[in-house]
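To whoever picks this up:

The nightly regression suite flagged MFS transporter as changed. Nothing in the input moved, so I suspect the structure step. Input below, exactly as stored in the fixture:
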Amino acid sequence: MKRASGFTGFTVMWAGQMLSSVGTRMTNFAIGIRVYEDTHSALNVTLLSFVAFGATVVFSPIAGALIDRWNRRVTIIASDVGAGVVTLLLLLVYLFGDPQLWQLYAVNFLTGAFLAFQVPAYGATITLMIEKGGYTRANAMMTMLRAAPYVVAPALAAPLVSAIGISSVLAVDVLSCVLAVAAVFAVTLPATPARDHTTAAASGFRREIGTAFSYIARRPPLVGLLGIMLSISFLSAFGWVLFPPLVLARTDDSASALGIVQAIGAIGGTGAGIWLAMLKPTDKKIFRMLVAILVLAIPGRIFFGFDGIWIWSIALFLGWGALPFIDGYNQSIWQEKTPPHLQGRIFAAVQMTENIASPLAYLSAGVLADQVFEPAMRSDGWLAPVFGPVTGTGPGSGIAVLFIVSGMAAVVLAVIGFLTPTIRNAEALLPDGGGETAPAAQTSDTARAT
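Regenerated output under the current build:
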């Protein structure tokens, strides 16, 4: 049987990852609710994400060097299998005992380590499988992996947890990982870009890890673009991790309210991804990306300062809808403007840098919410006279203030991007393919992995 290739092959792999993402989001939803109900601590919830992103940061440099060395199919499958095994271990813990909080942190750490390989491997594979004009479309589809599962995951996870328990959700997650691996086996991957073995042997593994950072540092437009994404990653993660505690705190721990808001927001993200995939290729990616940051900032963050399930739903719908344009156009620029034989390392370096912001945002958000802003927004708190007329006082009001502050900071970030020539004109300043000639291709993946 002939394996699918090109954009069709990518779509097969994407479908497998979509199923896997649904399983993962179901697990995240169920465990997040469980931790908050047990502890009523925003900090404990944020620490789940903190350890996962921390692991991704730690392992990204190693992953980048290995992705450029290894067969891409093997790399992707290994990351999927690893994540599935970790989930299976957690399932066994739930079946034969009651897991402790530290065990949930350990599972998230291991999952984050495998994710360090998966994301840059897929990004580099898109460059090989698809023509330049299709990068944005493919990246739009990849952004849907973040949004679309949230449409169905809460609706699937909530009744399963109520009727059977968290173990049923974990079993679904393990099955979804198996299907994702099967999808990768079903496609033909093109030749892996060759490495300069003479240079690699002379430099050694450690220096290979630093190659990507040196490459980026010599190109001011890439430095500026990475700085924008580092900042937006912090601000986006800062708001995202506080969204569940905000809704739960203001709805008497209503999981159904959280599921409704999350599902509506996911519809916005999915719809935006579909819209982006349908748009024609453009040379104004930076402009559209910065406009999307403004959308994320104002309705997507500041609106969370107001109270009401429908206001939160609109805010998440528009904020999530901005993300495919931010991430999709950003990723397309990196794919177009960097050499394919370095993309494993470059994308891992970008992932590491952006993900450094996320655990810092998660940790600081939890501490600021629990220790500073929530006490300050009680009826007798020192911030209540300032923000109380907008956010109200009591549980969740301090988190609402943090949303307003993060939204204002994102507005400033977008303005900086518009006013900085090396960022605003990055597409014109950078040559396609990084202006480098890659070594001759290695033996094709088809020959080695079919």
